[in-house]
Amino acid sequence: MIVIGLLLILLAGAAFALVLTEESTRYILFGYTFELNHVEMFLAGAAAAAVLLLGLWLLGSGSRRTARQRRRLRSARAEASSRVAQLEDEKRDLQRKLEREHTKAERESAKAEREHVKAEREHAPVPADDRLVARADHRR
């Protein structure tokens, strides 16, 4: 629409320039000669003005439509960006939660391992000739 509006504005401008540059009412256009009286000249000027106004209207409406589309696109991009940021926040929260659970599981596993080793030591039979020097424990 913008391009058509610009073309119509240029066409009306060319018609006005043609009228302004000619000294008589005789116009030669594309090999044809036109000789207009006052009424025909007025109607040609009115038609040129109508074409100019139509071109301006097309230019304005095309610009408004383009601006509206850009606003919608900008809004959609902002919405998508905020959604991506929200998803990234959720991802970070889930990663922290997973790390906490993993660390907790490791601690529980290490604690269970220590308890298991401790239980094995307590229930393990001690050979008769084995002496624990550090504790001074003599079992016989």
For this entry, give a set of tags.
6% strand; transmembrane; 2 strands; 140 residues; mainly alpha
In short:
This protein has 140 residues and is mainly α. 76% of the residues lie in helices and 6% in strands. Helix 1 packs antiparallel against helix 2.
Q: Which regions contain 5 or more consecutive residues with pLDDT less than 50?
A: none
What is the helix content?
over 70%
Helix/strand order: HEEH
Q: How many helices? A: 2
| Largest pleated sheet | 2 strands, antiparallel
Count the E strands: 2
The helix/strand class is: mainly alpha
Estimate the mean pLDDT confidence: 84
Distance between the termini: 107 Å
Strand order of the largest sheet: 1-2
Strand content: 5-15%
What is the general shape? Answer: rod-shaped
Q: Taking Cα atoms only, what radius of gyration do you get, to the nearest Å?
A: 46 Å
Keywords: Membrane, Transmembrane, Transmembrane helix
Region (Disordered): 84-140
Transmembrane segments: 41-62
Protein name: DUF1049 domain-containing protein
